Amino acid sequence: MIFIFGPLCSGKRAAAMELLHCTARELSARAVWDVQELAAQAGDLERLADELAQRDAVIATEIGCGVVPVDARERAAREAAGRLNCLLAQRAQAVVRVFCGIPVLIRGELP
């Protein structure tokens, strides 16, 4: 699995299509994105990470930068998203950060 992360609207899906050599239609069958939203509702992040790691690519939007939310639920969701990202990075064969449309290999090797 390739774990791709980066800021909102930074070109993560385009990078995933390039890295997996697939079209947008094929990407929807091979990858999952916006996993930070799944983290907020997950009771067991380890299990969620195991399930997501079965995909060819997992794409997450960074939400931990900036002002800490006042609302306790939003803070908990942000914490869960960060913990899920750590778990996914541990399971990934390659970790890629996309910034300004430029994919940067952080760890591992690309297929």
Outline the structure in words.
- With 111 residues, the chain is an alpha/beta fold.
- It has one domain (2-108): P-loop containing nucleotide triphosphate hydrolases (Rossmann fold), CATH 3.40.50.300.
- Helix content is 46%, strand content 23%.
- The chain has helices at 12-20, 24-30, 35-41, 45-52, 72-91, and strands at 2-6, 31-33, 57-61, 94-99, 102-108.
- The protein has a five-stranded mixed β-sheet, sandwiched between helices.
- Helix 3 crosses helix 5 (72-91) and helix 4 crosses helix 5 (72-91).
- The mean pLDDT is 93.
In what range is the share of β-strand residues?
15-25%
Biggest sheet, spatial arrangement of strands = 2-3-1-4-5
Mind telling me the CATH superfamily name? Answer: P-loop containing nucleotide triphosphate hydrolases
CATH architecture: 3-Layer(aba) Sandwich
Order of helices and strands: EHHEHHEHEE
CATH class: Alpha Beta
Rounded mean pLDDT score:
93
Number of domains: 1
